[in-house]
Amino acid sequence: MLIAPSILAADFARLGEAAAAAEAAGADWLHLDVMDGHFVPNLTFGPPVIAALRAHCGLPFDVHLMVERPERLIPEYLRAGADSITVHAEACPQLHRTLGWIREQGGRAGVALNPGTGVEALEYVAGCLDVVLVLTVNPGFGGQSFLPEALPKIAAVRALLDRHGSRAEVEVDGGITAENIARVRELGATVAVAGTSVYGHADGALAGVRALREALR
User: Would you give per-residue pLDDT tens digits along the chain (217 residues)?
Assistant: First the structure.
């Protein structure tokens, strides 16, 4: 299972060090949450910060756009260093077109589903997907507790993708800890986004990633 530390949980005054720490800890991706204060009630960062972080970290950048009209921003984030771009089904009326555009420009295309959004939103875009991000908290803030009612959705997403012959990653984000990471993998998740359990670990990011790896064993 791939582990993607979420830099949202890091010290914003030391983001470069946090990005480098994720790589040194043996993480697989770096997860970057972009929030616009409209689609979700919080603001984070944009392309200039992501471009600056690129110099500190060689991991694939997994950019999650929690923004209105994300199609306007795709070229900027790809130029800034994003390797994958995930947009919200709820924010994209032209979802099929947006996913195709991400792929045409060389990025991996992802769709995020809020806790209240059903998997049927994926039915007609499964062939365009590289990532499905299942949110196991309500988006907008880090440090929230895992919503257990989201567990059946992980299995449902995997089943839908398998039915369409899709090899897309099933990514889970929100309240992932050493106590629940093995369970989400059992249900079909292949990527775990972990914020507080990595950057908030008492012994640092290396110990946080190590604890998640140990839990998977």
Answer: 999 999 999 999 999 999 999 999 999 999 999 999 999 989 999 999 999 999 999 999 999 999 999 999 899 999 999 999 999 999 999 999 999 999 999 999 999 999 999 999 999 999 999 999 999 988 766 666 888 889 999 999 999 999 999 999 999 998 999 999 999 999 999 999 999 999 999 999 999 999 999 999 9
**93: how many CB neighbours lie within 10 A of its CB?**
10
Write out the two tokens for 6. 């979420």
Containing structural domain, residue 156 = 2-216
Cα separation, 205 vs 198, whole angstroms:
5
Task: Supply the residues annotated as catalytic.
Answer: 33, 173
Q: What is the CB neighbour count within 10 angstroms for residue 11? A: 10
Total structural domains within the chain:
1
